[in-house]
Specification:
Layout: E1 3-7, H1 14-23, E2 26-27, H2 28-33, H3 37-42, E3 50-57, H4 63-70, E4 76-81, E5 84-96, H5 100-104, E6 114-120, E7 124-129, H6 130-137, E8 149-151, H7 155-166
């Protein structure tokens, strides 16, 4: 299990997108419209009525692509705003979609398209400062930048983090 950090900045469109598609969730029928036939067949749609949806933009440097490729079902997506982690939930499924940002009404990014998508369920509210988060996962210095990152720590760190988020 890995933990992924995703910014939902209140200074740009990030938080509006977060509210619209993660907090308010997206109906399964709309999610399925953004998927390829192979993804539709693999997606566990019958288990859900709606899910939180987030996506990374595909940029020329492929940084977000590498992060997205590392995401797997069961990993934990954590969302932060103003250097505070406010929500987390398990990743259910990921897919590529050229139509997602238009289907859910997101404002296009300045570079690329929001096409590297994933769905989260059981979104849980939390309140954890960035410094606290970094200490839990063993970062020597703490920088919560407006980019998505992954925590590649040992399972014991993940357990401490899970316990902190759960409390």
């Amino acid at each position: 299990m890995k933990f992924f950090r995703f910014p939902a900045s209140k200074t740009g469109q990030g938080y509006a997108h977060f509210e619209k598609t993660v907090l308010n969730r997206v109906p399964i029928a709309r999610i399925l419209k953004t998927m390829s036939p192979n993804d539709v067949n693999a997606f566990p749609a019958t288990r859900y009525k709606a899910l939180g949806v987030w996506a990374l933009n595909l940029t020329s440097d492929a940084r977000n692509l590498r992060i997205w490729e590392a995401i797997a079902a069961g990993d934990i997506a954590t969302f932060y705003t103003d250097k505070r982690f406010t929500h987390y939930g398990p990743v259910i499924f990921k897919w590529r979609s050229e139509t997602l940002q238009d289907t859910v009404g997101w404002v296009p990014p300045t570079r690329g398209r929001y096409s590297l998508a994933f769905a989260v369920d059981k979104l849980t509210q939390c309140d954890l400062g960035a410094v606290e988060y970094c200490a839990l996962v063993g970062y020597a210095r703490c920088r919560c930048t407006q980019t998505s990152t992954t925590s590649k720590r040992v399972p014991s760190s993940c357990m401490r983090l899970t316990q902190t988020f759960a409390s």
